[in-house]
């Protein structure tokens, strides 16, 4: 073997010898363990123990005594003191005088320690401690090490506020408890007979309280929220989070409202490989203001039922939103996140796919919340709606490849509850339609032409009809359109920067003959918004009950400036206008024919000259009256983390003018330089932030919706005060002032003020973000 090694060293080993050596005596590499965060238990027992000191006495298999700067080290554990006695056979260790223990980055210091390095059990007298994962610290009369990463703190204090060296520790907030359990395996703590204090004032006492020891999802108290509401009065919410399993959790949000009573709210979330969803419910027994029980619930569920055969797939989805009464939306505008309007959508749908086939079966209903002073017309429910679609791409037609074909069929039952038909408006009924489409795109570098032929046929059957109306009706219409465009490019330079500049003209032609459709019901058609996509669409209406007789040409022109190095779009300008070749006579019920041959102009611009700035604007301009019917201009400035300002001005002629402003900004930036970002600490401690969103009506000279306030980051806690005003209708609004405390590393994110800030302020950032798990080497002795 020595000869083999010698030959390997000088590179002269014969090939046959090398093969024999490799087969008979392989030399595998061993994986090192010195840099592992945690060792397997069987490996841990085999790790060596090192001792250091000014004086060492003892026997190899007996007791070793180290004195003077004594230190015992074993992989991820370090013990230091003035004097250490270590029994190598049993692992029993005694340390005295300025004792320090570092266990995987958690540090304990005190006068006396008794500890077993093999079982990791022992006790520490009158220690102070620092925990690595959430930067917590505290002190106690005694700490018991229980092994397996567990410890118990007796008569202890716990906080994440810093401890100044050489000074009495009086943290801004702390938890006092007779006993605190620390489990580093589950990364959760539990306090028995605990009291939370803030600025020396006890404000929450609980016989049992759990809290997280890391950024992982753990059961525990969420930040409580206190608010004063203009309708409900003083309110306090004390949410509690239950991490039931890695794929299940439950949040309980009991709320006391001084003028109403107690509202019980809970949210359950679940996640499985084939399905996911959440359920949220609220119940208030005997609302004092309404003298009735109040309730609401929502359920969102999506599931992949599984592979039926080969390439088949079947998915189902459920979206339910219900409340107990019509006034729920105005009394509890924040209760359910789906309550963005007075129409609560409820859907149940199943989608099946196989190759070119897609089948969709669903039921779509609405709960309409009516108010006496502002009633609304409810939409039709669809019970049920069945759609079957067949599509093929890149097929041959008359020996010409590249054609795309689509055939869609739909049968829907429309029903509107408590609706009485009036003249010109029918009641409930059924509609079946077939839409077939064929299109092909010819293109080459610099140009494209895409013709499209569509045929739309619909059949109606009505339940209740008025005098002179027919119980059944039908309509079939063809539509021919051609979309074409060109792209010109050139090198350009503006303001000292090089760009690739484009010029992109586009011409869209569409022709649909006129058919009188005034005798048909209108279940789901509505006018399209005036935007870029609508200008290049065949039908002026959305839905399937009205097919506009659009015989028109649309001309568009856009130009872009592109950064040649990054490919980023710096500037985009656009213009479009539609010219009718004939009057558009098909209208919605109550509408009038379009006789103006030239539509309004659509002007768009988007500029992001600097990554920090972005400007978007859209103008609907009438060249005949030389006025803009609708215009929007918006700008956003994001110079860095936790700094964002956005503003938008929206004008709809003779109807509304609104200014919309949103912001999150460190106040120190206004009179000096803000702090630098720190991990999970925003811009550092001692920072004030202004946050808000203001929607102001210029015509009425009053705010519509307002969410504004301040956040203060003290380092180990975050405080918030937020003023919220939400417009309920033209005459009333709901107002409240909300206060919230969040203890860093103890109470997790999730309070209602955060929900209000996140949902209203564009690009808002939480002051506490999840970070990578801490490593024991970050706190290494």
From TrEMBL:
<dbReference type="InterPro" id="IPR020889">
    <property type="entry name" value="LipoPS_assembly_LptD"/>
</dbReference>
<dbReference type="InterPro" id="IPR007543">
    <property type="entry name" value="LptD_C"/>
</dbReference>
<dbReference type="InterPro" id="IPR050218">
    <property type="entry name" value="LptD"/>
</dbReference>
<feature type="signal peptide">
    <location>
        <begin position="1"/>
        <end position="18"/>
    </location>
</feature>
<protein>
    <recommendedName>
        <fullName>LPS-assembly protein LptD</fullName>
    </recommendedName>
</protein>
<comment type="function">
    <text>Together with LptE, is involved in the assembly of lipopolysaccharide (LPS) at the surface of the outer membrane.</text>
</comment>
<comment type="similarity">
    <text>Belongs to the LptD family.</text>
</comment>
<feature type="domain" description="LptD C-terminal">
    <location>
        <begin position="293"/>
        <end position="671"/>
    </location>
</feature>
<dbReference type="Pfam" id="PF04453">
    <property type="entry name" value="LptD"/>
</dbReference>
<keyword id="KW-0998">Cell outer membrane</keyword>
<comment type="subunit">
    <text>Component of the lipopolysaccharide transport and assembly complex. Interacts with LptE and LptA.</text>
</comment>
<keyword id="KW-0732">Signal</keyword>
<keyword id="KW-0472">Membrane</keyword>
